[in-house]
């Protein structure tokens, strides 16, 4: 049976106060989510409640600190005490994504998106750290695969995870089934999966009734298969969710290797999140730790840059040298590694990392160089050969920043990169206006001064003027035309030097200020995407470049006529161990120096934020929440229900000291929540907390005065 919140009692007719716009929340039906519900059902139940609760535009802070978020607090408490569905956080973040991209009533949609994000990270406060890991890393499964596993529970499917299946595919029903999960939707490979997912959620949220009118044969949530909560948060720009300490502890645990997805390299290995135990884990599983993956990536790019400079310095126009052949090998290894990463992560999540755009540019320039170089040598065309080397010189524009991309893990650089990204977007938008004005003046000046200046000369003159050389305009304005030249040129110089340049500077400054205001969230978002991208691959045998070319040369031809069975997989594992043994030895030596092997089960050793006594210990706020499961909320006690006429019978029988004690419990829960999720409070949050304290004191004074008044009335009636 669905759980209902008790409705508020009827108002006294003599009470003429204006009802609160949020009073409808006391009669809402809370979502009854069972563990057997599909992801589709969970999304729909939550969307109905969120849509009914958030009916007015509200800011994030209003939903978090004022009465506008009371319905969200009720939902969080309900989910924390009754809901055990593993896809709860996934569903909330998927709804956040939907509402955040909706074009209908932007302010209301934004409020609902914020509401979903608030409920998602507050729900995690009711969980232990181990439970939070399970919820955040839970992968949405294909209902068809789940039905197959339910039909044959005794079958061994762990060893049938395909090398090309998506993130955290823990138990797929065979290689063909895994391949179907990745390639069943050709639109996804063409970069349209974002639209498919958004349309899927839209189909669920269009109907605000409990009846499911969708066609059962077409599951609109099928496009969410193989995505976990952290991936959805990264795609949905849920930066506040990703910046919470409990989430960052998980992400940093993945980065340091305290949380791993593979504990051994064997034919029957299964990918699932687990805590690293150095006594039982395979040393070769450390190759999948993002920290070591990115460290080797830096070394690979450094060697790549060395070969690049060596080839350009050598610059042999007549033949291909050994250094150039080595550069080609590095290009091929790099391109294959990026292609594999794009297939594993998916086009949506792959595009979330700005450095991947640099990688695509590097691959494009490298391919152009190789093609022109080959054609030039074959046709003995010196011009093409020179052009190929000139194109290769453009590679430095992307390769040099890519080598130092590891700096984005630093808080300083990790904050500047999003700032530059947003400023670049605004600059491109503003340049549209500049081009329009520029073309208008260019046409006029070219036609008026056609006797003295050609079109090319006029283009260069106006470009110099726009870039700051105003004196050029004053020198040529009389030559353009004695009558129209001076006023038009003065107008153009004024527009370009004062209005357009000043507007552009101010707009870029606002963009920088807008991003830097949320510097911590921006940095943690970049950091989270960086870590998640390194851990999304589901390949058991992940070869570091350039060793990945060996796997391609040896095993790719065999796939044409040999089945991809366990022996095939075992051969890949043997090749991986043979080629990566020195790398594993360096990793083991490094961890031995850090004492990781000696300390054994020190999970979360590198985590940020507060730690609890044990991994399975409940959150302090959850302990308090259990103490007050049946208690009324603070708003109910200090709000209109503080009036004895409007107070329900169960509240009327309570002593004032009991009510004050319960308010103190509520305040303790909110303080624990702020400490666990927000870390250091801002100046605004401190003022809000101070105001809330004053309100509580005023409420206690009013209650005590009411008690004294009732006592006096009782004495008078007795007399």
UniProtKB/TrEMBL annotation:
Keywords: Membrane, Transmembrane, Transmembrane helix. InterPro entries: TRP_calcium_channel, YVC1_C. Residues 1-22 are annotated as: Disordered. Residues 301-591 form the Calcium channel YVC1-like C-terminal transmembrane domain. The chain crosses the membrane at residues 296-313, 348-371, 391-415, 427-447, 488-508. The keyword Transmembrane applies. It holds the Pfam family YVC1_C. This is Calcium channel YVC1-like C-terminal transmembrane domain-containing protein. It comes from Cladorrhinum samala. The lineage of its organism: Eukaryota, Fungi, Dikarya, Ascomycota, Pezizomycotina.
